[in-house]
Design brief:
Strand order of the largest sheet: 5-11-10-9-8-6-7
InterPro entries: Aminotransferase_I/II_large, HTH_trans_reg/aminotransferase, PyrdxlP-dep_Trfase, PyrdxlP-dep_Trfase_major, PyrdxlP-dep_Trfase_small, Tscrpt_reg_HTH_GntR, WH-like_DNA-bd_sf, WH_DNA-bd_sf
Oligomer: single chain
CATH architecture of the largest domain: 3-Layer(aba) Sandwich
CATH class of the largest domain: Alpha Beta
Organism: Pseudonocardia autotrophica (Amycolata autotrophica)
Keywords: DNA-binding, Pyridoxal phosphate, Transcription, Transcription regulation
Family: In the C-terminal section; belongs to the class-I pyridoxal-phosphate-dependent aminotransferase family.
Strand content: 5-15%
Helix content: 40-55%
Domain HTH gntR-type: 3-71
Number of domains: 3
Bound molecules: pyridoxal-5'-phosphate
Distance between the termini: 45 Å
Largest sheet: 7 strands, mixed
Structural class: alpha/beta
Shape: globular
């Protein structure tokens, strides 16, 4: 096949997709129709779609056809960021693979459409969710070691909304939240919006420096400690039981709340029990289905101490009146029938394989990660700045996050967080090799 036959068609379609002439969701002609339209062989038409698929512009759905992809899903955390070059790999945001989930979703929607009480999803959902759906989540949490009545579980539109509602329920402008010097950027955004002060806790190789935390809490009133004890984002650590108990001890002595973020906790099946189990009276446990099921689902849950239940309910009502009935029905259906537990195991296996690939590709670099997590931390060689490295990588079509996005302290290290979940697994060795070579070629 001469390349000239398919390339101009690929270019024309790619341009139409990028400029919005063919908007997201457009169904493209069948391979046969495309071949007829352009007077090309069927194999050439197939090649056109294969090329557009590789470029991330279209997706084929078995039995249904080829559709223009929504490019926003590739843009990472900043919604208006555009992809710099076509061979783009997004290592800046984790969207675990979702291919097998399209048929699952189609099946679940069909089931939902024939369920006895479909109308109920159109009614306003009570803040925190309907009791039978809270009960499903409470039962699922037993496997994570958390024993709570359904009334202690609050369903949310994702972990981020849970976190926002907890801050709304428990803090006032000017309050201090202690957290790791490197932590989840979503906390920083919320703290800034709510005029909270973040007090950074210095880090050791295995977790927060608890001596420093103790001094901090003794020196000034700290309203809450935000912690990611299992598969820390971005550093990947899982705190051992003794460290968790010491953390709880500090919180109890200083009468400080604990906010435990367990969004990635499902990735470590050997982790000690959640901090919430040691201190249920003062811990908010926040998690969701973004990383174990799908980022676009927007479903989460928060377990709250009794005494904060009313304030949390108010906090949820101020951020959205209620959760989506349809999403909640789908999500709790998948929790109830075991789909979520199955997916969590698949994700752990997938993440482990991706870490093997990363370790093999990045051997001569300072790369650390939890063995079954979806991200890793890359300390750059002396003399290379994180922003320079990120810009050089963007020029090669590789998007990464720099340490400053995660930093709560004044001087972020020169390091990158690599999110490994979004690229296709078979592309990952090549992407990481390009990343390694780009960094190796940087002047320092
Ligand atoms: C540690 C952590 N917490 C919370 C969230 C937000 O999760 P959700 O999509 O459920 O709002 C993320 C998302 O990346 C995260 O990494």
């Amino acid at each position: 096949m001469r390349p000239a036959a398919y390339k101009p068609i690929v270019d024309r379609l790619a341009a139409a997709i990028r400029t919005g002439g063919l908007p997201a969701g457009t169904k493209l002609p069948t391979h046969r129709a495309l071949a007829a339209e352009h007077r090309i062989a069927l194999a050439t038409a197939t090649r056109v779609y294969a090329e557009l698929t590789t470029m991330g512009l279209v997706a084929g759905e078995p039995g249904r056809g080829t559709f223009v992809r929504d490019q926003h899903g590739h843009d990472g955390i900043e919604p208006d960021r555009r992809l710099p070059v076509p061979r783009t790999a997004d290592l800046s945001f984790n969207q675990p693979p979702a291919t097998e989930q399209t048929p699952q979703l189609r099946h679940a929607l069909r089931e939902l459409s024939t369920s006895g009480n479909l109308e109920a999803v159109l009614y306003q959902q009570p803040p925190g969710g309907r009791s039978h759906e809270r009960a499903i989540v409470a039962t699922y949490l037993l496997d994570r070691g958390i024993d709570t009545p359904p009334a202690g579980v609050f369903l949310t539109n994702g972990a981020q909304q849970g976190l926002d509602a907890v801050l709304s329920a428990t803090t006032r402008p000017g309050d201090v939240i202690a957290t790791d010097a490197l932590t989840y950027p979503g906390l920083k955004i919320l703290a800034a919006a709510r005029f909270l002060e973040i007090a950074p806790v210095p880090l050791t190789a295995h977790g927060p420096d608890l001596d420093a935390l103790e001094r901090l809490c003794a020196a000034r009133p700290v309203r809450a400690i935000y912690t990611i004890p299992t598969v820390h984002n971005p550093l990947g650590w899982t705190l051992d039981q003794a460290t968790r108990e010491r953390l709880v001890g500090i919180a109890r002595t200083q009468d400080t709340l604990l906010i435990e973020d367990a969004t990635y906790a499902f990735l470590d099946e050997y982790a000690p029990p959640p901090v919430q189990t040691t201190a249920p009276e003062r811990t908010f446990y926040i998690s969701g289905l973004s990383k174990n099921v799908a980022t676009g689902l927007r479903f989460g849950f928060t377990v709250a101490p009794d005494e904060h239940a009313r304030a949390l309910t108010r906090g949820l009502r101020t951020t959205t009146w209620g959760i989506s009935g349809i999403v909640t029905a789908l999500a709790t259906g998948w929790i109830h029938d075991g789909t979520v537990t199955r997916l969590e195991k698949d994700r752990r296996d997938d993440a482990r394989t991706r870490q093997h690939i990363a370790r093999a590709a990045l051997t001569d670099l300072d790369y650390t990660a939890h063995p079954s997590s979806y991200f890793g931390w890359l300390r750059l060689p002396e003399g290379i700045r994180a922003d320079q490295a990120a810009a050089a990588l963007a020029g090669e079509g590789i998007l990464v996050s720099t340490a400053d996005a995660f930093s709560t302290a004044p001087h972020p290290p020169h390091a990158l967080r690599l999110a490994l979940a979004t690229p296709a697994r078979e592309d990952l060795p090549d992407v990481l090799e390009r990343l390694r070579a780009t960094i190796a070629a940087m002047p320092w």
